[in-house]
Amino acid sequence: MSNVVLETKNLSKAFKGITANDQATQVIKNLNFQVQAGETVAIVGASGAGKSTLLHVLGGLEKADSGSVLWAGQAIEPWSVRKLGIERNKTLGFIYQFHHLLPEFHALDNVAMALRIGGENKQTAREKKCGVT
């Protein structure tokens, strides 16, 4: 059994027509990598280097031009928007560089929000995400 939870195969993404001469800007080019279960990964780079684009593609929020993103060995490209949303809620977590917290909730409830959306009650979600009651 594989411990690979996230993988890319020959992933590429370009934005067309954003330069003065209408040239495509290659943001991701033939990227191959794997993330193992329990591994912590940070994506760092200069402003405009493509970090957010990569995260959007990895999370199924944006489509790659070519290549594949696999979650636990399954390619996400053929999935419907609904299936992507359901699977994203169950398997992925993003920590954004800006605070996208909902001001009407405590920090603890913001962290547990994905579980609440997935159907967990407030108490169970708090315990699972934070070990706090």
Record the SSE blueprint.
Layout: E1 4-15, E2 25-36, H1 51-58, E3 66-71, E4 74-75, H2 81-91, H3 107-111, H4 113-117, H5 122-130
Antiparallel strand pairs: 1-2, 1-3, 3-4
Gyration radius over CA: 17 Å
Largest sheet: 4 strands, antiparallel
Strand runs, count: 4
What are the segments in which pLDDT stays under 50 over at least 5 consecutive residues? none
Number of helices: 5
- Outline type: globular
What would you say the CATH architecture of the largest domain is? 3-Layer(aba) Sandwich
Distance between the termini: 35 Å
Helix content: 25-40%
Instruction: Spell the H/E element sequence.
Output: EEHEEHHHH
Number of domains: 2
Structural class: alpha+beta
**CATH topology label of the largest domain:** Rossmann fold
* Strand residue content: 15-25%
| Average of per-residue pLDDT values | 84
Summarize the structure.
By secondary structure, this protein is of the alpha+beta class. It has five helices and four strands.
Describe this protein's structure.
The chain contains five helices and four strands. A hairpin with a 2-residue loop joins β3 and β4 (74-75). By secondary structure, it is an alpha+beta fold. The chain folds into two domains: 4-88, Rossmann fold (3-Layer(aba) Sandwich); 99-133, no CATH class. It has a four-stranded antiparallel sheet, covered by helices on one side. The chain has helices spanning 51-58, 81-91, 107-111, 113-117, 122-130; strands at 4-15, 25-36, 66-71, 74-75.
